[in-house]
Amino acid sequence: MRYFAGTNFRMSRYPLSHAVVLGGSIAGLFAARVLSDHFAHVTIIERDGPFPAPEPRKGVPQGNHVHVLLARGRMIADALLPGLSDELLTLGAVQLNAGRDFAWHYAGGWRAQHDDGLVFLSMSRPLLESQIAKRIRALANVTVLNDVRIAGPLSGGSRITGVRVTQTGRSAQASEVEADLVVDATGRGSATPQWLAELGFPEPPRDLVGARVAYTSCTFHRGRDRSNHRALLVSGKPSRRNGVIFPIEGDRWLVGLQGFFDDPMPRDREDFQAYARSLAVPDLYEMIRDCEPLSEVKQYRFAGSLRHRYEQLSRLPEGLIVLGDAVCSFNPVYGQGMTVSALEAEILGGMLVRAKAEGGLSPDFARRWFKSIEPVIDAAWTGVLVEDFWLPELAEQRPLHLRPMQWYMDHVQRATHRSALATNQFYRVINFLDPPAKLFGPRMIAEVILAGFGGSGGNSASQKTPLRQPIHTSRAD
After folding, report:
1. Tens digit of pLDDT for each residue in 1-44?
2. Within 10 A of 61 (CB to CB), how many other CB atoms are there?
3. For residues 429 and 435, is the Cβ–Cβ distance under 8 A?
C-alpha cells in the first residue's frame, strides 16, 4: 500500500511537494511549522495518540518535570507562531523577569538580583507542547498521523524517498509514505544511525558524557508568596544535589529535585521534603514546607548527554536530515534542549529559503544542514562539558583543553555573586541571546577580576543583593 498526503495548493507557490516529520514532540512541531512555508504538504508521524489536553504523554517520560523555553527559544516560537506567548499567558503561564524574579544559588553564593528586560515564561511542558501542537494542527497544509510507528526508510540508491509505517498495536502490512524530505525528530532513541548502516552508509561517531542524573518532581498548591523572588534554583559544584521551583499554570508550584549518579532519590512526599531540606540552602524547602502537595512524586532518569557527530560524515543519503535530541541529547539539568530545537528550526527555515531560490533541495543539503547546526550545538555542548566535568566521577575523563575554560568560568560564576552586570551577561549567554564570546569581553574580565576582591552573595535568597549599577540589556557587553 502506498500513501501520499495530497493537497490542493498551487504548486507554483511551493517548489517542493511533501515533507515528512518523524516525531511530534516540540522539535518536530517547530520543524513542521518551518517546513509548511516551503512544502505543499507536511505530514507529522507520531506514535502517541492525539493529546488535545495539556497532559504528559507516554512518549515524553520527562514531561512531568521542569522544562524551560529560554528567552531566544521563546522569541523564535513567537516568530513562528505569532501570539503564542499571549495565548500561554491567558492559559496560566507566569511571566518572570530573569534578573528580578529568579533567585539562583550556585556554588556557595547567590547570583546578584537586578532588574532587566530579560523575560521568560514559566509553565509546564504539557501546556507549552499542547498549545504549539494545536497551532500546528490548524495549518491547512499540515497533517498529523497519530498512533503510527515507523517501520523503516524507503530508499532509492543514495536517496531516502520516504518511510514505511504501521498502525500502533497492529500487525497490518506497512504503508509507504513518500517524501521529498524526511526530518527525523524522534529524539534520543532515533533509528537513523541504524538506517545508515543498513543502507551502506557509515554511522556517525558518538560522544557520551556519562553524568547520570535522576529527577524527582512534585506539584504543590502555590500559596501566598512573601519572598522577593518568584522562582528559585539551587545548583552547582560542589553540590551533587540540585533543586528548582517554578510557578506554573493552575496556581501551582512545580518542584524538581535532581541528584547525580547513585544519590538515592525520594520516592514519596515525606522523603521529598527531606531531600529539599538537604539542599545547600533552605530556601526551596521553606517555600514548600507548608504547601499542599497536588500530585504524586514522579521520577525520571537520564543516562548522560549524547551527541551524534553527523557533521563528521563524508557520505550521507539525500532526502534525510536529523534534528533535536536525535542529534544531541543534553543533560536536562541545564534546560537547553527545547531552545536548541527552536534555533535549529530557524536555521532550517533559512536553508529552505536558499533551496527555493536554487529551485529545490541540492544533493548536499544534508551535509550542509549538519554543518549549519554545528555551532549552535557546540555552544550548548560546551556548557554541558564545563559543568558535568566538575563531577569527581568524571574527573579522569576530563579533557585537558577544558581545564582553562573551567577555571575561567568558575571565576565568572563567582563574579555573578556580587555583580549585576556579570549576572546579566551570564543570563544573556545561557539564554542564547548573546554568543559565549561575550563572557570574555573587557567589561566581563574586569568584573571577574573585581570579584576576586569580594565575597559571595550570602546564604539566603531573602537577603537582597544590592545592585552595583542599573542594568539595561541593550548596554550589556
Report:
1. 343 343 333 334 566 899 999 999 999 999 999 999 999 999 99
2. 14
3. yes
User: 543498513: which residue's cell?
Assistant: 198
What are the boundaries of each domain within the chain? 2-66+130-208+305-384, 212-302, 401-475
Helices H / strands E in the chain, number of each: 13, 21
Q: Report which of 350, 351, 329 is spatially closest to residue 340, judged by C-alpha positions.
A: 329
Its pTM stands at 0.91
| CA atoms of 17 and 32, how far apart (whole Å) | 14
pLDDT at 475 over 70: no
Query: Is 428 in contact with 438 (CB distance < 8 Å)?
Result: yes
Contacts of 26 (CB under 8 A, 6+ apart): 128, 129, 132, 324, 338, 341
Three cell numbers at 147? Answer: 498512533
Find out whether 379 and 339 touch, Cβ atoms under 8 Å.
no
Three-state DSSP class for residue 333: helix
Residue type, 115: D
How many whole angstroms separate alpha carbon 17 and alpha carbon 67? 35
- All three cell numbers of 220: 504543590
Q: Does domain 212-302 have CATH number 3.30.360.10?
A: no
DSSP helix, strand, coil percent of the chain (3-state; round to 5) = 35, 25, 40
Count CB neighbours of 169 within 10 A.
8
Could you please state the CATH topology (level 3) that the domain comprising 2-66+130-208+305-384 is classified under. Answer: FAD/NAD(P)-binding domain (3.50.50)
* pLDDT tens per residue, range 172-190: 678 999 999 999 999 999 9
CA distance 434 to 269: 40
Beta pairing, strands 231-235 & 102-106:
parallel
Rounded (10°) CA dihedral 357, 362, 367, 372: 0
CA atoms within 13 A on the CB side of 199: 23
Q: Say if residues 147 and 167 touch (Cβ distance below 8 Å).
A: yes
Question: Which stretch of DSSP H or E encloses residue 240?
Answer: none
| Burial class of residue 299 (count of CB atoms within 10 Å of its CB; 0-12, 13-18, 19+) | middle
